[in-house]
Write a structure and sequence with these properties.
By secondary structure, this protein is α/β, with parallel strands linked by helices. It is 43% helix and 13% strand. The protein has two domains: 131 residues, Rossmann fold; 53 residues, no CATH class. It has a six-stranded parallel β-sheet, sandwiched between helices. β2, α4 and β3 form a beta-alpha-beta unit. α1 crosses α2 and α5 packs across α6.
């Protein structure tokens, strides 16, 4: 099977790190904490101005991305899937202008964390993953983006949505852990 896998919030703990860093910075900035808990961090969770948000995000996002941890079970399940003969495509939208050398940074992080894969593909926008999935003949895609999963499903490719607080308002096959992802893939 040809398996497409996103990185942030699927393999890595991106939102956990980002939230901790936003809280830490908020204490220095105003110490008002979370003012809109139903919003995403970069979409009004804190009472920062757009300039404050953009400045903090741009100055720190690359440092944060380089120091992410792997979500429990991700490394082991990906390794097991590879050992079982599957082809692993890491497909991420990190080529979005947030990073100086996104491919090199991501490749280095994956190797440092021991994540095995056959091909690393960076796209500019999340929706470009649909075209990549078609071009690479992906059999299943694992992502945390509703937009990506809906697009993937529309072109006839099964998708597994990694559960996050911001994607719970849709009925797509979802997983709460890598053990669940493995079980879903085995059923296919």
């Amino acid at each position: 099977m040809r398996i497409g896998i996103d990185i942030d919030n699927v393999i890595s703990n991106f939102d956990t790190v980002l939230f901790d860093e936003f809280l830490r910075h908020d204490k220095d900035l105003r110490n008002t904490g979370v003012v809109n808990p139903n919003n995403y961090m970069t979409k009004g969770m804190f009472d920062w101005t757009k300039a404050e948000l953009d400045c903090f995000y741009r100055a720190n996002i690359e440092k944060f991305a380089k120091n992410l941890d792997v979500i429990d079970g991700a490394k082991e399940v990906i390794e097991k899937l590879k050992q079982e003969g599957n082809i692993i495509f890491i497909i991420t939208s990190r080529d979005n202008g947030d990073y100086n050398y996104p491919y090199e940074m991501t490749y280095e992080w994956l190797n440092k964390k021991g994540i095995i894969f056959d091909e690393l593909i960076l796209v500019h926008t999340p929706i470009e993953k649909v075209k990549v999935a078609q071009d690479k003949h992906i059999d299943i895609m694992i992502d945390d983006s509703i937009t990506v999963c809906e697009g993937i499903i529309k072109v006839g490719i099964p998708a597994i949505l990694m559960d996050t607080p911001y994607n719970r308002n849709i009925n797509i096959l979802r997983a709460n852990s890598w053990r669940e992802i493995y079980e879903y893939i085995k059923k296919l």
